[in-house]
User: What shape does this take?
Amino acid sequence: MQPIALFHKLFLITCAILFSGQTLAKIVPTSTTELSQQSCRLDLYHLTKNEQQQFESNLQLALITENPLRQRYIALKTASSHRSGFENIGYYRSGQPVEIFTANWRKYKNQYSVSRLVVLGGTSDKQAFDVFTRLLKQDQGHIELKASNLSYRFTVRQQDLSDFQACIDQHYHK
Assistant: This one.
């Protein structure tokens, strides 16, 4: 086959693949922010494919501040099938544990399970928030969490991380 004919054939196949409806991926965000004078919020989503081959979040972390009340915490949400009770969640860097957090999972209206993070052995939501956001900033939004023999990797969009950090700095580091 002539090089031009081969190139033309490959080009047509590539175009057919790129523009076929079944192969176009829906862009799903892995992080979002909600920022205001009242609250700074960064949501992180761990995505998996469901039976319909669509991405959905199977673990969501929400780093939340309530600025007028000077509250800050990390809320977690996952499927309602997740067991209730305490669970240690490791924050890993390069395959090594850096920090251990604890979550106390509870069912919420039989729709999903929710929890807040605290540092292992601690009781303060604020301390867990401060430690986690420091690690998140150091790792430039690329993190890995491990819990119950499962591994969750998150990649925060750089703009979301920058905007969230600016909101925190404005309200907490004056």
Residues 14 and 20 are 10 Å apart (CA to CA). The radius of gyration is 20 Å.
